[in-house]
Amino acid sequence: MSEPRAASPYLLELDGIEAGYGRAALVLRGLSVRVPPATIVCLVGPNGAGKSTVLKVASGLLAPRAGRVLVDGRDVTGHGPQQLLSVGVAHVLQGHSVFREMTVAENVLLGGYTLRDKAAVARRAEVVREIFPVVAERWTSLAGLLSGGQQKQVEFARSLMVEPRVVLLDEPSMGLDPKATGTVFAQVERMRAAGTAVLLVEQNARRALQTADIGCVLDLGRVHIEGPARELLADPQLGELYLGGRPAEPSGRPAGPGDRPADASGRPAEPPPASKA
Ligand SMILES: Nc1ncnc2c1ncn2[C@@H]1O[C@H](COP(=O)(O)OP(=O)(O)OP(=O)(O)O)[C@@H](O)[C@H]1O
């Protein structure tokens, strides 16, 4: 018999997670993150803080040693990636994962391999082609001929084939120039507009917080500060510690080529004193 579903305002919840690799010290030490439906939540923090590890726990790639993973209030702790995908959690891994020698269409349709019904695959393909126009335009091109930003959109499109309810994005702007980064973040907003929640990890923290609804600052394996992304951007102490020391841009201007990534200065000496999480 399946467990009764508790009513929850959150689509995805990580609650008191402790996780690490092998015998090494724990990376996550009591971390909690909540993702409401159709919301972009961004994790920022120094290199090695455990941001990618959070995504691996959320997608079932790494089993936590303690704590719970909940989807729609239902406990899915310990479930593997396939099971998490089947309840609507899709993970777009760091780096580029398109098959360069295959067409855009083949790459995207691979994302629907778990869908049994051919008509459902065709319907979803139409939906993702609408969300990502470049995917529709380059449908029959070899994926390897696309630019880095276009390839990232192919990866997004592939992840949306199964109609996930939350997509975990690990460093989507990695290796992209500022223009392509802008395009990719615009597409992240389109995913939200299409009703998909996003849990985002990004080196370019300032740019990511301009797109996100909620920001979470990770340090020492926990969420130290959580709040509306715009408020985090405007916080001078946070800017100094985690966002490369530049004052927040009141206009929400996309980051320019001179913008320093969040972690350029490495781990700060002290975390901010007051935890709002
Ligand atoms: N597969 C692995 N095996 C062993 N240790 C790992 C593995 N992956 C990550 N780690 C370690 O876990 C810690 C957290 O890594 P993680 O990649 O989650 O951090 P991050 O905040 O995403 O860092 P970055 O901003 O540099 O990508 C680091 O100390 C890292 O060396």
From TrEMBL:
Pfam families: ABC_tran. Gene3D superfamilies: P-loop containing nucleotide triphosphate hydrolases. It comes from the Bacteria. InterPro entries: AAA+_ATPase, ABC_transporter-like_ATP-bd, BCAA_Transport_ATP-bd_LivF, P-loop_NTPase. GO terms for molecular function: ATP binding; ATP hydrolysis activity; branched-chain amino acid transmembrane transporter activity. Keywords: Amino-acid transport, ATP-binding, Nucleotide-binding, Transport. One of its GO terms (biological process) is L-amino acid transport. CDD domains: ABC_TM1139_LivF_branched (cd03224). Residues 241-277 are annotated as: Disordered. Belongs to the ABC transporter superfamily. This is Branched-chain amino acid transport system ATP-binding protein. It comes from Streptomyces indicus.
